[in-house]
Amino acid sequence: MEIIKYIILGIVQGVTEIFPVSSSGHLVIFQALFGLEQPGLIFEMFTNMASFLALFILFSGDIFKLIKGFFMYIFSKKREEYKDTFFYVIKLLIAIIPIGVVGFIFKDYMGTIKNLLTVGIALIITGGLLMTIFFTRNLIEDHDEITWRDSLVIGVTQAFAIFPGISRSGSTIIGGRLSRVSLKSILKFSFLAYILISVPTSILGIVDLASTSETINWLGYILAFIFTFGATFFTGYLVMKKLKVEHLIYFGIYCVVVGAVAFTAFFLI
């Protein structure tokens, strides 16, 4: 049963990291309702690194193109050819600054509010906003290019995802749609931003691993890593190929229902 716990948590992390339903919120719910205690910060590092690696492989073509374009703009004489790529990278950096700042300020506080009440409220808010995006989908005209304003709006809305129950991918979708960005462009930008911000957090996680006194079930952690990787890769591929604005209504309803269950359970358990 101990090993199954790690596998379940790995799958939950992988799927909910991609879908706009909050991975942190679901881990809190599984912990409280099903007695699946989350092993700790090092476990989070393992699963987050697995999601990072899966998305890195999934978007490897785009990543290498961005890296090449960024440095070619700086060092090549044909700068104009790589101008759009260079500024796209800068926009990604702008988008991750707010969540980095907010996360640093509130990192010691987040653990104290991880409970069914706060997660339930946050999921209901996320679901309500996703349904609003669905019902207003025909009122706005999409554009594919991410502007400077778009990157800032997406960055600000993404910062709310540090609160358990607020979906990171959901918040970027909401921010992007508020700026009238097409869903496909939002998703690509969102996942690339996740990869970018995961680099320093993964490095810090490795440093913490070297100095941790936390008990580690290596078999469980490795299995969680494998299942998180597989779930993230498959779900990410599916979302990029199939997800449409029309589908947001289902995620919105799901978040509201699960949020209501978590909210109610807080007073009953």
Task: Report on the architecture of this protein.
The chain has 269 residues and is an all-alpha fold. It has one domain (2-268). Helix content is 78%, strand content 0%. The protein has eleven helices and no strands. It is globular, with a radius of gyration of 19 Å. It starts with a helix and ends with a helix. The mean pLDDT is 87.
Structure described in brief:
The protein is mostly helical.
Secondary-structure map:
Elements: H1 2-18, H2 23-34, H3 41-58, H4 60-75, H5 83-110, H6 116-135, H7 148-159, H8 168-178, H9 183-211, H10 218-242, H11 248-268
Helix pairs in contact: 1-2, 1-3, 1-10, 2-6, 3-9, 3-10, 4-5, 5-7, 5-9, 6-8, 6-11, 7-8, 8-9
Q: Into which percentage range does the β-strand content fall?
A: under 5%
**Roughly how many Å is the radius of gyration?**
19 Å
Distance between the termini: 23 Å
Approximate shape: globular
* Oligomeric state, counting identical vs distinct chains: single chain
The H/E string reads: HHHHHHHHHHH
Contiguous low-pLDDT stretches (5 residues minimum) are: none
Find the structural class using helix and strand composition: mainly alpha
**Domains (count):** 1
Largest sheet: none
Helix segment tally: 11
* Mean of residue pLDDT values: 87
Number of strands: 0
Helix content bin: over 70%
